[in-house]
Amino acid sequence: FVLHVEATDKGTPPLSGHCKVVLEVLDENDNAPEVRVTSLSVPVPEDASVGTVVAVLSVWDRDSGSNGRVRCSVWPASPFGLVSSVSGSYSLVVREALDRERVSEYEVEVRAEDGGAPALVGSRRVRVPVSDVN
């Protein structure tokens, strides 16, 4: 913010002075990242090829600078991973072969961590059922 201040005294003749005040507001890391599922394609067939998109997610942080920069990951380790497309948009994709007879459903958490100190974390759970293919 830039403020222009002028002051005038009550003397005869009145004297005045002026100055410019520059107020810089620093961002505080007070917003955790937010994760939203914008598209979900489930169940995933067990013969889905590597790279198949399971979900599209939107991730953002209302803070600015490093407080608003977000890194995303999938937890726990699973056959799914994240691919960043455009700024703030990620695809949850199949990274390795699925086997419904071994695991019929996954519960993965997409975690978004900002660059603040201390870092804040937002997350979203995604349930991924696997369908049987004969």
UniProtKB/TrEMBL annotation:
<keyword id="KW-1133">Transmembrane helix</keyword>
<keyword id="KW-0106">Calcium</keyword>
<dbReference type="InterPro" id="IPR002126">
    <property type="entry name" value="Cadherin-like_dom"/>
</dbReference>
<dbReference type="Pfam" id="PF00028">
    <property type="entry name" value="Cadherin"/>
</dbReference>
<protein>
    <submittedName>
        <fullName>Protocadherin alpha-10</fullName>
    </submittedName>
</protein>
<dbReference type="InterPro" id="IPR050174">
    <property type="entry name" value="Protocadherin/Cadherin-CA"/>
</dbReference>
<dbReference type="InterPro" id="IPR020894">
    <property type="entry name" value="Cadherin_CS"/>
</dbReference>
<dbReference type="InterPro" id="IPR015919">
    <property type="entry name" value="Cadherin-like_sf"/>
</dbReference>
<dbReference type="GO" id="GO:0005886">
    <property type="term" value="C:plasma membrane"/>
</dbReference>
<dbReference type="GO" id="GO:0005509">
    <property type="term" value="F:calcium ion binding"/>
</dbReference>
<keyword id="KW-0325">Glycoprotein</keyword>
<keyword id="KW-0677">Repeat</keyword>
<feature type="domain" description="Cadherin">
    <location>
        <begin position="36"/>
        <end position="134"/>
    </location>
</feature>
<keyword id="KW-0812">Transmembrane</keyword>
<keyword id="KW-0472">Membrane</keyword>
<dbReference type="GO" id="GO:0007156">
    <property type="term" value="P:homophilic cell adhesion via plasma membrane adhesion molecules"/>
</dbReference>
<feature type="domain" description="Cadherin">
    <location>
        <begin position="1"/>
        <end position="35"/>
    </location>
</feature>
